Amino acid sequence: MAFQCDDLAATVEMMKSNGVRIIETDPTHIMVHPKSTHGILMQLVEKDPDAPRATKAGQVPDTSGVVGIVSYKCTVVFVKNTDEAIKSYEALGLKLYV
C-alpha cells in the first residue's frame, strides 16, 4: 500500500517520534515496517507539488491513460485488538472518524 505525503521528511519524523518502525533505504521513498501496521507493508513517497488535489469525496482525476485500477478510496484491515490498532494507526498520523 502506498501513500503520498506533502512533506515526506516531516511525516517520517512525526512517525518516528510516535514509535513507528521505518525502513529507510532510499530517501525518495520510505517503507513503514509491517510490525507498525499490523502486517501491512506501506510505502511513503513525496507528492509532486503540481499533482492534482483530491475532491471533497477524496477522488483525484485520473489522466494517466492506464487501464485498470488506478485509485482506491477504502481499505479494510482486520485486527485482533481494535484499541491497539487505533493507537498504532494514529501513530502513523491517521485519524479515526466515527
Output the keywords:
about 100 residues; alpha+beta; 2 helices; 4 strands
Describe the structure.
It is built from two helices and four strands. Helices cover 20% and strands 18% of the residues. Strand 2 (22-26) and strand 3 (29-32) form a beta hairpin. The protein is an alpha+beta fold and 98 residues long. The model has no long low-confidence stretch (mean pLDDT 82). The protein has a four-stranded mixed sheet with strand order 1-4-3-2, with helices on one face. It is globular, with a radius of gyration of 15 Å.
Question: TL;DR of this structure?
Answer:
The chain is built from 2 helices and 4 strands; from the N terminus they run βαβββα.
